[in-house]
Amino acid sequence: MSGLAQIATTRRDPPGSTKVGVIGTGVIGSAVIRALRAGSIEGVVLTVVVDNRPAIDCPVPQVSLEAAIDQCDVLVECAGQACVASHATRILESGVDLLITSVGAMADPQVADEVLAAGPGRVIFTAGAVGGLDMLASASAFMALRSAKITTTKTPASLVQPWMDEAATLQLLRTDTPVEVFRGGAREAARLFPRSLNVAATVAFAIDDFDLVEVVLVADPDGALTSHLIEAEGDAGEYRFEIKNRPSALNPRTSGVVPYAVLRTLAVLVGRPVRIV
Known about the structure:
Elements: E1 18-23, H1 27-37, E2 44-50, H2 65-71, E3 74-77, H3 81-93, E4 97-100, H4 109-117, E5 123-125, H5 133-142, E6 145-154, H6 166-174, E7 179-185, H7 186-192, H8 198-207, E8 213-219, E9 226-234, E10 237-245, H9 258-269
Parallel strand pairs: 1-2, 1-3, 3-4, 4-5, 6-8
Antiparallel strand pairs: 6-9, 7-8, 9-10
Helix pairs in contact: 1-9, 3-4, 5-8, 7-8
């Protein structure tokens, strides 16, 4: 027995527990599923999972989204921007709370408007692989920021995209020095690199200004860690945060810490915050 099936499946749900479903059983979703099944958040019970592909060795029932909405108090999205665009509003309008990991979906103004207007379910976004967002959000709310920039550095292989032609792909994979892959706004960054630059949308969403944020994406063949350098300046002060995460061993497009950021955010959403929020 391996994977998700390693977690025991015989536990009964305690009275008054918060029933949670996870949408997506990829690298992030699977880690969240394992942690919840192991009881990582007191009073939270993993009830179902949702995926458009069969989940291998799943410790709880795999059901349709409609069934998950009927059975859960909270749904955790780990399935990508398209899932948010297609289903977030319906989830929230049903009264179910939603934790979103694919913040890049909010780069689409129509999606953002619909999600933020929906309810009565509550929506919360995880910071995922980046930090310092609480300070940036506070600073931008206090006094306007004049500039904001995020420079992300990843391995070349993790940045290959389906829209790249063969020549561009080979050039990226064969580089032996750091090379700039993208420079532009947060909306375009989230669209072109939906799995690698959710962080850019997260920064933009935190300061409530997608048009202000400049994004630079660098491929570094010698970069063992994924780096995010966030810089901002305004009347409230000057800010500089650098985060260097170890990539997930299973998917280098994401950082290994992301599932644990999701779990912390979930604890806040269900009213069981830990340490500083």
